Structure formats: structure tokens, C-alpha cells
């Protein structure tokens, strides 16, 4: 009997493969990394795709600026419109709303598939991009828009398409996680931790979009839309940042066995008449035992709860040139394969069209910090106010504050954690505290999550 001898795999001649022309919009940190990876891994990418990627051009505002060895001057153009009209694939890493939106719509109108990392555009007007992709039969891919190198969009959009996602809670902004982690480790206040983040390149010179929660809110909008098959607008996402988180809040969280993280939370809210969606971003106290509590420095992590799959956690680098470029190239390979073999990737799924629930109708657990007069009956008065609005106290921590001058009124600091209560009830209680002479200041109000 003759013995079968395995034959080595046949490696195709790359020169015989079709060519896909790639337009890159933007040559900043991410764009440069994308170009570097295409140049360095060109042959491997060609084998994986079944076609060669050829960079047709790189659109920039200033063609005279030296972009380094990975961005040849011969590829630079200041006419992005002409560039996208001749491309098979368009990679958008320029950011902003316009002209990015107009260029992507033009690219799809001329038959190009699009890969973008533009979370702000997707959150504000993803509808027009989805519609254009459907009308023109091209791919719209955006893995890098939510969590950098972490595969998250594809698992939610495809791997869990046969399941029912109930809740997504995660840390999706590296800048704020670095700041809060530094405050926790060192006891620094917000301004010092922000300065450190800027010094080491983890925060922009203008960090507003990060520290005020806008970046995380845009990502929450995208995640909610994918997870719940509905269009969730950026305006539907309740957004709070971390600028008011103090070193005292961090210390209080530590005493409670908790850590403060900026969380993006999207979830189904079950009601008698059906379901609605909650999408929100705010700093919250989570137990030290929760998987998200150990996410340090500028890393991201997302916790997904699904009916059949149970709890899933995704962890990794959520920002930076190389990690983001990795996610972009993953989308490029998928879109390029579709072009070579025919067909397109997943389309927008919004059959559910669930409405968003206002924050005031949700129930949350809270931690509130108050500076009060130190006299008999104060605790009873505060507890009575909360009880009057249906809020039950879980724990109280009281600390006497030193008086500034002899004979001045004694003050105390009170930290209260509550059981779950209506957001509207807490708002009413805080309004009542603001109008009483007993409470001198409301120092902080934070939610408690993860229990």
C-alpha cells in the first residue's frame, strides 16, 4: 500500500493577486502607525486577504510637514475628495465631524468600503453612515472607535448576535483611568494626577473631552446601539466626568473597600410595559473585588452580561497609536476580504428601536459627602430628609473637623452610603440639603455600582 506523503502548502505568487487601493485620511499618530504596519506586514496581509494593499495616498492639511519615514512625501495630498473617489478602501483617522463625514459619504457613494476610528462622528451621526453603506453595498467598520485594540465591536455585533445582552459596563477611557488610578495609589488630588497624565502622554493638552466624560459617552452611545439593536444618540447618554472627584472621595472609597472608576454603563431596563435602554457615564464606587477595580493605569476593560453566555470581560490597551492601528487593520482585512470574495459584512441592526429612559427614573445606590454643623440632632435630621424621599441609609461615617478659630462653630464631615433609590428622590433630597442651615456644603455625590 502506498503511503500518502503530505505536500507543502502552495504559496501563491503575490504578483498575481489583485490590488486594492487604500486611501488614508489623516497622518497623525494613528495614521502613521497604520501606514507603518501596512508597509511592514504587506506580504502577510496580502496572503490573508487574497489581494495586495496599495496605499493610493494620504490626505493631510499640510503637505510640507515632514511626517517621518513611514509616510512618504510622494503619497501626501491636500485633495482628500479626489483621493477617496479613486479608492477601494478608505481609512479615516482624521477625527472631528467635518470634513470627515462628507468624505466618508463621498467614498461610499463611489463604492469604497470605510474603516473609521471616529467615535464622535459615529455617536453623533452614525445613522447617515449606516444608510450610505446600505445603499451603496459597502462595509462600514469601526472596531477602533470604542476600545482601541480590544476586540469589542465584533464580539457584540457578531459573536453575541445569537444571545441577548442585558448589560455592558466598562472603563473605556484610558486618560481618566490613569488619573483615578494615580489618585488611588498616591493620594494625589485631581489636578496633580492630571498634570502627571499630561507629562507622560496619557492626557491631551486640552483634556476636556476625556475628563468631562464626553469621549466615554460617545463610546457608550455606540455600544448601546450595537448591544440593544436600537439607535442610541449621544444626547441620550447621561454624562458626568471626574473633575469633581477629590482625594477625600478616593480615601472614603478605600475605607469602604471600594475603588472609584469612570464607568460607561448601558443596560436594558425591564418594565411592566416592555423595555427601555439606559446609557450613562459617571464616576462610581465599585467593590475592590470586582474585576474592573483592578484595571490600572491607562488600560481599558469592559464587562458584558448576556443571558446565555453569562459574564464576559474584555481587557487591553484602549488607546495609543499602535493598539488603535491594530484594530483598524483588523477591520481593513475583513473589509478587503469582502471585496475579494464578494458580499459585505454585518449591516446596522436596529429592529428593536427601544426608547431611552431618563436618568431620574432609574434606581441607584449613592455615596454622598456632606459638611454639617456638629450639634445634636443633625444626623437624625439628615436621615429624616432621606427617609422622607424613600431613601434608606446603608452606612454612615462621621468625622469631626477642626474649627478654624477658637469659639467658631464646630463642624463635622458625614459620609453616607445608601441603598438603591430613585435618582429623582436623591435630587430632591440634595435640593433640601442645599436649603437648610444644618448642611453647610454638599461635597460630593457618587453612585455605587457592581454589587
UniProtKB/TrEMBL annotation:
<dbReference type="Pfam" id="PF03447">
    <property type="entry name" value="NAD_binding_3"/>
</dbReference>
<dbReference type="InterPro" id="IPR005106">
    <property type="entry name" value="Asp/hSer_DH_NAD-bd"/>
</dbReference>
<comment type="similarity">
    <text>Belongs to the homoserine dehydrogenase family.</text>
</comment>
<dbReference type="Pfam" id="PF01842">
    <property type="entry name" value="ACT"/>
</dbReference>
<dbReference type="InterPro" id="IPR036291">
    <property type="entry name" value="NAD(P)-bd_dom_sf"/>
</dbReference>
<dbReference type="GO" id="GO:0004412">
    <property type="term" value="F:homoserine dehydrogenase activity"/>
</dbReference>
<dbReference type="GO" id="GO:0050661">
    <property type="term" value="F:NADP binding"/>
</dbReference>
<dbReference type="InterPro" id="IPR002912">
    <property type="entry name" value="ACT_dom"/>
</dbReference>
<comment type="pathway">
    <text>Amino-acid biosynthesis; L-threonine biosynthesis; L-threonine from L-aspartate: step 3/5.</text>
</comment>
<dbReference type="GO" id="GO:0009088">
    <property type="term" value="P:threonine biosynthetic process"/>
</dbReference>
<dbReference type="InterPro" id="IPR001342">
    <property type="entry name" value="HDH_cat"/>
</dbReference>
<keyword id="KW-0791">Threonine biosynthesis</keyword>
<feature type="active site" description="Proton donor">
    <location>
        <position position="219"/>
    </location>
</feature>
<keyword id="KW-0521">NADP</keyword>
<dbReference type="GO" id="GO:0009086">
    <property type="term" value="P:methionine biosynthetic process"/>
</dbReference>
<protein>
    <recommendedName>
        <fullName>Homoserine dehydrogenase</fullName>
        <ecNumber>1.1.1.3</ecNumber>
    </recommendedName>
</protein>
<dbReference type="InterPro" id="IPR019811">
    <property type="entry name" value="HDH_CS"/>
</dbReference>
<dbReference type="Pfam" id="PF00742">
    <property type="entry name" value="Homoserine_dh"/>
</dbReference>
<dbReference type="InterPro" id="IPR016204">
    <property type="entry name" value="HDH"/>
</dbReference>
<keyword id="KW-0560">Oxidoreductase</keyword>
<keyword id="KW-0915">Sodium</keyword>
<keyword id="KW-0028">Amino-acid biosynthesis</keyword>
<comment type="pathway">
    <text>Amino-acid biosynthesis; L-methionine biosynthesis via de novo pathway; L-homoserine from L-aspartate: step 3/3.</text>
</comment>
<keyword id="KW-0486">Methionine biosynthesis</keyword>
<feature type="domain" description="ACT">
    <location>
        <begin position="367"/>
        <end position="444"/>
    </location>
</feature>
<comment type="function">
    <text>Catalyzes the conversion of L-aspartate-beta-semialdehyde (L-Asa) to L-homoserine (L-Hse), the third step in the biosynthesis of threonine and methionine from aspartate.</text>
</comment>
<feature type="binding site">
    <location>
        <position position="119"/>
    </location>
    <ligand>
        <name>NADPH</name>
    </ligand>
</feature>
<dbReference type="InterPro" id="IPR045865">
    <property type="entry name" value="ACT-like_dom_sf"/>
</dbReference>
<feature type="binding site">
    <location>
        <begin position="25"/>
        <end position="32"/>
    </location>
    <ligand>
        <name>NADP(+)</name>
    </ligand>
</feature>
<feature type="binding site">
    <location>
        <position position="204"/>
    </location>
    <ligand>
        <name>L-homoserine</name>
    </ligand>
</feature>
Amino acid at each position: 500500500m502506498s503511503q500518502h506523503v503530505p505536500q507543502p502548502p502552495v504559496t501563491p505568487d503575490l504578483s498575481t493577486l489583485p490590488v486594492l487601493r487604500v486611501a488614508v485620511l489623516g497622518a497623525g499618530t494613528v495614521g502613521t502607525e497604520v501606514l507603518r504596519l501596512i508597509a511592514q506586514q504587506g506580504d502577510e496581509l496580502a496572503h490573508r486577504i487574497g489581494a495586495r494593499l496599495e496605499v493610493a495616498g494620504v490626505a493631510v492639511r499640510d503637505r510640507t510637514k515632514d511626517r517621518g519615514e513611514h509616510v512618504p512625501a510622494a503619497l501626501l495630498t491636500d485633495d482628500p475628495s479626489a483621493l477617496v473617489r479613486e479608492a477601494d478602501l478608505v481609512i479615516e483617522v482624521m477625527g472631528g465631524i467635518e470634513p470627515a463625514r462628507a468624505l466618508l459619504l463621498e467614498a461610499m457613494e463611489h463604492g469604497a468600503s470605510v474603516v473609521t476610528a471616529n467615535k464622535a462622528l459615529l455617536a453623533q451621526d452614525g445613522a447617515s453612515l449606516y444608510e450610505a453603506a446600505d445603499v451603496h453595498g459597502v462595509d462600514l467598520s469601526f472596531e477602533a472607535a470604542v476600545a482601541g485594540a480590544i476586540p469589542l465591536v465584533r464580539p457584540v455585533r457578531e459573536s453575541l448576535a445569537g444571545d441577548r445582552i442585558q448589560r455592558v459596563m466598562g472603563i473605556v477611557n484610558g486618560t481618566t483611568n490613569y488619573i483615578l488610578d494615580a489618585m488611588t495609589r498616591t493620594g494625589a488630588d485631581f489636578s496633580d494626577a492630571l498634570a502627571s497624565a499630561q507629562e507622560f502622554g496619557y492626557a491631551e493638552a486640552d483634556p476636556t473631552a476625556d475628563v468631562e466624560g464626553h469621549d466615554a459617552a460617545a463610546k457608550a452611545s455606540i455600544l448601546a446601539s450595537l448591544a440593544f439593536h436600537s439607535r442610541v444618540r449621544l444626547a441620550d447618554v447621561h454624562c458626568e466626568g471626574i473633575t469633581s472627584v477629590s482625594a477625600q472621595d478616593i480615601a472614603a472609597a478605600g475605607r469602604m473597600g471600594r475603588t472609584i472608576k469612570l464607568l460607561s454603563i448601558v443596560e436594558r431596563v425591564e418594565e411592566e410595559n416592555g423595555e427601555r435602554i439606559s446609557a450613562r457615564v459617571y464616576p462610581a464606587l465599585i467593590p475592590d473585588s470586582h474585576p474592573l477595580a483592578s484595571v490600572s493605569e491607562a488600560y481599558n476593560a469592559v464587562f458584558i452580561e448576556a443571558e446565555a453566555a453569562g459574564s464576559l470581560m474584555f481587557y487591553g490597551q484602549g488607546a495609543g497609536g499602535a493598539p488603535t492601528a491594530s484594530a483598524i487593520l483588523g477591520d481593513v482585512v475583513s473589509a478587503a476580504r469582502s471585496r475579494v470574495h464578494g458580499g459585505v459584512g454585518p449591516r446596522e441592526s436596529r429592529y428593536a428601536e427601544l426608547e431611552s429612559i431618563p436618568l431620574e427614573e432609574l434606581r441607584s445606590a449613592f455615596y454622598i459627602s456632606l459638611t454639617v454643623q456638629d450639634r445634636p440632632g443633625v444626623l437624625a435630621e439628615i436621615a429624616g430628609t432621606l427617609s422622607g424621599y424613600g431613601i434608606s441609609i446603608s452606612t454612615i461615617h462621621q468625622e469631626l473637623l477642626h474649627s478654624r478659630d477658637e469659639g467658631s462653630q464646630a463642624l463635622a464631615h458625614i459620609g453616607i452610603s445608601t441603598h438603591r433609590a430613585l435618582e429623582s428622590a436623591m435630587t430632591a433630597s440634595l435640593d433640601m440639603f442645599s436649603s437648610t442651615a444644618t448642611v453647610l456644603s454638599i461635597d460630593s455625590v457618587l453612585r455605587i455600582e457592581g454589587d
